[in-house]
Design goal:
By secondary structure, this protein is mostly beta strands. The chain is 12% helix and 29% strand. The protein has helices at 2-14, 23-30, 93-96; strands spanning 36-40, 52-54, 60-61, 67-70, 83-85, 97-100, 111-115, 119-127, 140-141, 144-145, 159-167, 170-174, 183-184, 186-193. The strands form three sheets. A six-stranded antiparallel sheet has the order 3-4-7-12-9-10, with no helix packed on it. The radius of gyration is 16 Å and the shape is globular.
């Protein structure tokens, strides 16, 4: 419902970090991961612990068991190269890495998507570029604005927004330069089930892709 989505947007705008249960607690309660976390980065950087990685490649199956990727290739090998590590010494690898979605405006309607089981998901998007100003107001999640401010995101500034969204077959995130959206750093996805919103302290993500975590 719209009022529930608005409430979550306001909460996330004020509180950047939600407290997570431990992996062991999540497994005990649900037989599931705490959350699915994807870092957008170049291929050469080691993937931060606890994260999956997206390196700007076109949509397709990944060896981690999930299927996701971009409409247009923005990997390190592409002409429209977007997968980057800024390598600024005062930032961590997680903070230094990002994917510029459409650097040279070669891909109108650029979007990132991931196949998910049907249900309701709490999705949080993080924008952070240690070196350059970013635009984020054009971010659309499942066709709905994420509510990023119209003002530019300053170099080094971290800004997050989140929504509760319904998923039938895949989750879609739209971001192209012509729509005032330049880059993405991280995304977290929490499955909340089909029967109402769970507490954010007890998120749920089905463990089908990771058999070692299933009861």
């Amino acid at each position: 419902p719209a009022h529930v989505r608005m409430l979550h947007r306001l909460l996330v705008a004020e509180v950047e970090e939600a407290t997570d249960v431990s992996d062991e607690e999540a497994r005990t309660w649900y037989g599931a991961h705490v959350k699915l976390k994807i870092n957008f980065q170049d291929e050469d950087t080691a993937t931060p612990r606890g994260w999956l990685r997206d390196t700007g490649e076109p949509f397709g199956f990944r060896r981690n068991g999930f299927t996701y990727g971009w409409k247009c290739d923005v990997s390190s090998a592409a002409i429209n190269r977007g997968a980057i590590n800024r390598n600024r010494s005062v930032y961590t690898a997680l903070e230094n890495t990002l994917v510029v979605s459409d650097k040279y405006s070669h891909c109108p309607g650029q979007e990132w998507r991931i196949d998910l089981r049907p249900g309701v998901y709490h999705v949080e998007v993080t924008v952070q570029d240690p070196m350059y100003t970013s635009s984020a107001s054009g971010f659309m999640l499942q066709g709905e604005s994420l509510g990023f401010p119209d003002v530019p995101v300053r170099p080094g500034q971290t800004i997050r927004r989140a929504l509760l969204v319904d998923v039938i077959d895949f989750l879609s995130l739209s971001c192209d330069r012509e729509s005032a959206c330049t880059s993405i750093s991280r995304i977290t996805i929490q499955y909340t089930g089909n029967d109402g919103v769970r507490s954010r302290l007890r998120p749920l993500l089905e463990c089908a892709q990771q058999p070692a975590w299933c009861p």
